């Protein structure tokens, strides 16, 4: 692939000045149009060491309005970042609609430099490539423009540049032993990069190889290419028909009598049984919490369920004996202004727990396939795609070592009515019940169908759904705690054996 | 101070249950009222090791709605945090209006644990206390409620708790050598804490000592105390008269013929002089940029000036040869929704540069004493207080080693008109000029008076204002670059000598 590239390409000063002049103006204009159209863009700079990534990024941003972009330099992951799944630091940096994020090195570090350095095991490579591909596909599906540039220079050119940097005492510190190693073993490093380029060159996020021997040639090519992609994105957006959001009621037959209809809601515990058991489980959980901290196991617990299904009470019993430094409850309301202009998974990525910490989500990313589906807040294509996206996100967390469990707190319609009325009569709980709750209740059947489909499509071995029989609060709370305790117990034991 | 505290206080189970029941309900209610009233709260937990901070925080948050608070555990600063002024990691965590931030250890670490451990020099203590006091004063003036709790146990009690933790193999790792050292030298550590309590016990942010031997007693006291402070804050807010924002035109005589009237706007450079000089300065700056990176010097450059005064052009020449990994341009527009519900300095604190990096601000925190003052976006008390607040912020940055320079790009009224008209006639620049620019122009005299006052009140040795004669763009750009180059040159030399 790369050996076919002509690295001798040059551009004379006059042509360069003319091209840059034209393209700068064009870029400035297009950047404003992208902002108006609300199209987000990510531009990735990868390539050989000393190929001039810094210089090229700087020339590109000179043409743009600094109110619209950010540059992220991605060296080795920091302590904080190492404690999270590897895509975390990139997901959290995905730009809002209408904004541009420029990455100096990116999520490709793992499958290039870190692979060369042996920091990632060969057996983990397929997974890493898979994660990268689904990351880019998900963003593209969400409307992101992804521009990937690979700056290429020859072994000799690189050697010359390293030497020049080393010759001056002010810049010699910039050339590291690792740089030299990649130059000495240029062939092997090139092979790794070629494989990366081939495996991740997709239709929607293609790689562009930039011949970077001549900086002016490279700059002109990059600017023209970026402007072309901006223009294409604007054209595509203008041509796309607005999604018709008709909200046909959810009533797919095969999911009408699904998992939920088989749940045995008569299960109960007496107060005495409850007290004894909850006390034992809380003590055990307190101990396990300290064990998972010691073993650096991240834990993700998602809570969904009917309104008044008992999520809050269950979460309270779960956390009441835990050290607050090691857990966080993330409540999920309607997205705020900032969240609305990001990918729908972005706000959840922001709250992915550190290794050794527990993240409890009170309502979750499953809103996409429930309320957003039923209320028509997203298109049919959006929520249908979401099952896979969610499975991929949870798989990524699980691959990073996380225990992932999702609870559906299930009650029947009569029990809900009873609880709603009780809340209305209790001044301390009155605020918990709104007109919206009553309105949602009218859509019970639609929700039931959607939940049945969700449970089937997103219950996986690495992130199972646990349906909790919730008519008896005592029973429900004990089941939640026991499920968590058992899962942590098992994981801690497994870690101990390694 | 502390020896007068009776550490034998206890509470029996029944009283505890009753108090907690009442206070929990009260807290839940008050939290919702605080949210409605838009009052932000910070609760600080400090005190002796093993005094039960974690347990107490957990009991407190069980009574609150997780949608309204966050808990921050503050151990040693991370790599990222160490590269910034020490208050950065707390400023960025100050809660939005109506929200609560709970700190498990806080900005007091520096003057307690780190002082005991010798990580901070005694000669830097007065500065550290000063920074803490102004941090809290500024937040209080901005409407923040600050609740500070000191959990106190005796040397014997602490020893007993450490031993108990050590006795179990699951918890023994929690007790460190440092913990034991602070127990062995309890007297010395206590003295340090007493000094801290005395120096930072202010009327608006007082310390409450919590006798923490008995956990139930402590929990009941904390909850009651927090609820009382919430209630007092609500009462105070209800009683405060809304600021009358009359916008009397700015025309303080003593600032009418100030600094700006003496600026010599006839200074010019020819195109040839400009080209030669700018080229030399850019090369020099490129070199210095790499030196400040090596020496870990942070640089803060603020740009203010008349509309069309040439800020954008000057910033472009300043950055065009720099490595984008080492600088960032932060444009300042009207605050967005998130910024509006924080202290006005919060968004600038978020962009404080890392050591070794340059942060350029295109418009700055000085908006408070210019546009906000003139348009009545803040009260008279607010902008009058701002001079000190800004000086304190810049002093904090300078104390952390930053080079801080502010530029005022000055042109006269005729030159502005000429540039406005030129922009209107140029399709590529038309978007830069809006009706608001013309409206601001009508207030030229008010702005001039405000700027004169600002220049006098906030030009300091550690963060000087540089007025740039801007009628000739060539002259202005060279002056900006030369000022930056000279300042960095001097600082790099000074660092080299150490």
Automatic annotation (TrEMBL), chains A, B:
Could you cite one Gene Ontology molecular function of this protein?
A: polyphosphate:AMP phosphotransferase activity
Q: What residue range is the signal peptide?
A: none
Write the record's keywords in alphabetical order, separated by commas: Transferase
Q: Where is the Polyphosphate kinase-2-related domain?
A: 11-234, 269-492
Q: Which domain of life is it from?
A: Bacteria
The record's Gene Ontology biological-process terms are: polyphosphate metabolic process
Q: Which Pfam families match?
A: PPK2 (PF03976)
What PANTHER family does the annotation carry? POLYPHOSPHATE:AMP PHOSPHOTRANSFERASE, POLYPHOSPHATE:AMP PHOSPHOTRANSFERASE-RELATED
Q: Which NCBIfam families match?
A: poly_P_AMP_trns
- Protein's recorded name: Polyphosphate:AMP phosphotransferase
Give the organism the record lists. Answer: Hungatella effluvii
């Amino acid at each position: 692939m790369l050996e076919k590239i002509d690295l001798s390409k040059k551009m004379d000063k006059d042509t360069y000045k003319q091209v840059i002049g034209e393209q700068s103006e064009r870029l400035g204009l297009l950047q404003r149009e992208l902002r108006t159209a609300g199209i987000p863009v990510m531009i990735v700079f990868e390539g050989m060491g000393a190929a001039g990534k810094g210089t090229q990024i700087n020339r590109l941003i000179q043409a743009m309005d600094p109110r619209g972009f950010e540059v992220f330099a991605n060296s080795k992951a920091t302590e904080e970042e190492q404690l999270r799944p590897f895509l975390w630091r990139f997901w959290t940096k995905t730009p809002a609609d209408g904004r541009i994020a420029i990455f100096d090195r990116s999520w490709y570090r793992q499958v290039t430099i870190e692979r060369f350095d042996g920091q990632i095991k060969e057996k983990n490579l397929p997974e890493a490539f898979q994660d990268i591909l689904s990351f880019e596909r998900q963003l593209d599906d969400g409307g992101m423009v992804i521009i990937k540039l690979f700056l290429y220079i020859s072994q000799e050119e690189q050697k010359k540049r390293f030497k020049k940097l080393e010759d001056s005492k002010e810049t010699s510190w910039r050339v590291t032993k690792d740089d030299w190693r990649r130059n000495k073993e240029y062939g092997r490093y090139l092979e790794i990069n070629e494989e990366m380029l081939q495996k991740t060159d997709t239709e929607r996020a293609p790689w562009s190889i930039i011949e970077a021997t001549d900086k002016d040639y490279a700059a002109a090519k990059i600017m023209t290419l970026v402007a072309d992609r901006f223009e294409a994105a604007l054209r595509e957006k203008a041509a796309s028909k607005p999604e018709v959001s008709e909200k046909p009621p959810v009533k797919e037959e095969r999911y009408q009598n699904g998992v939920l209809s088989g749940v045995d809601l008569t299960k109960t515990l007496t107060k005495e049984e409850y007290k004894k058991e909850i006390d034992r489980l809380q003590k055990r959980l307190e101990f396990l919490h300290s064990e998972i901290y010691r073993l650096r196991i991240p834990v993700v617990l998602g809570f969904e369920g009917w309104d008044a299904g008992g999520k809050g009470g269950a979460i309270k019993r779960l956390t009441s004996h835990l050290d607050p430094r090691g857990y966080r409850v993330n409540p999920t309301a309607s997205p705020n202004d900032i969240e609305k202009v990001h990918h729908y998974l972005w706000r959840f990525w922001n709250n992915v727990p550190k290794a050794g910490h527990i993240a409890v989500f009170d309502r979750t990313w499953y809103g996409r396939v429930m309320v957003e589906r039923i209320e028509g807040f997203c298109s049919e294509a959006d929520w249908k795609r979401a099952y896979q996206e969610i499975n991929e996100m949870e798989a990524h967390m699980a691959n990073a070592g996380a225990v992932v469990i999702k609870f559906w707190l299930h009650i029947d319609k009569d029990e809900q009515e009873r609880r709603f009325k009780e809340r209305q009569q209790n001044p301390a709980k009155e605020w918990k019940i709104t007109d919206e709750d009553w309105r949602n209740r009218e859509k019970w059947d639609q929700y039931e169908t959607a939940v049945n489909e969700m449970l089937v499509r997103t219950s996986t071995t690495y992130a199972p759904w646990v349906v909790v029989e919730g008519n008896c609060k005592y029973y429900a709370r004990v089941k939640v705690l026991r499920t968590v305790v058992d899962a942590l117990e098992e994981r801690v034991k497994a870690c101990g054996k390694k």
